[in-house]
Amino acid sequence: MKRILPLLIAAALLGCCTRGPKLAPAVQAYYRDSLASLTARCAKVLEAAYMAENLIEERTDLPGWEGYPVQLWEYHTGEDIYLHAPKRGLVYMLNPSPEQLAKWVVNAVFDATGELDPAKIEQLCSFIQWQSGAQFPVSGVVYEDMYTAGFYEPYVFKDGVTVYVADSTYLTRDKHPDNTMLQYYLTLTNDQLRPNTGRFARISSTTREMYYAAGGQADVGFSDDGQRSQAWLAEVGRLYREAWNADRNFLIYAWAKANL
Predict the structure, then answer these.
(1) Which residue range(s) make up the domain with 97?
(2) Which of 76, 142, 186, 252 qualifies as a cystine partner to 86, CB 3.0-4.6 A?
(3) Does the model's pTM come out above 0.90?
(4) DSSP SS3 for 18
(5) CA 216, CA 7: separation in Å to the nearest integer?
(6) Is 248 exposed, middle or buried (0-12, 13-18, 19+ CB in 10 A)?
(7) Where would I find the beta strands (DSSP E) of the chain?
(8) How many domains does the chain have?
(9) 139-164: per-residue pLDDT in tens?
């Protein structure tokens, strides 16, 4: 029975995310007594959404994301240490509300651990805040200075995953994309990408291995170089769209199951 129960949870999460399996009594009680305070905590998480600077438009007709309120944001980095000026970014995002994020966190922790330990809830919130600020890039450029402080490197994203542009004319040696490149990144299709994608899925750095361990069934490759199939994009996008109107997010659950 111990082996069967996690499989049943995974099947319910994967197959019925929009309706969702019935919430456990412990989760219902948490909603009643503590959801408001966790929602306030998740608002703090979303304060780290540095790309949500200047809203240009909201669209519900973005190809592949029809019916979802995808927002186009313009933002600027701090002063880049090599360019000696800020860098401009454009990105489509579908970020959760604080309450939506709080529900995803609560259910991920409970489904992964069978309890609602406040320390584990905070661990998951803190990780999401540090890793992504709960930002889900549908397409566009994400600047990060992970390796050199103040050097804002551009990472192109599609469906919540880092991707690599195949046409070298849309890349730049100084890693400062111009406006033509920024617009190009917003409308990329899979056939304009190199075969490999990045390893991690937003908003909780879920890997393919975590996905499989949590019950994921699609063939999305592996994290090793040369095995990072583009199928990961479609599956991450599908799971995030299913989570959008649900209390559970399978990608966050998969991270919680592997790390809590």
Answers:
(1) 4-259
(2) 76
(3) yes
(4) coil
(5) 10
(6) buried
(7) 54-59, 70-79, 86-93, 137-144, 153-158, 161-163
(8) 1
(9) 999 999 999 999 999 999 999 999 99
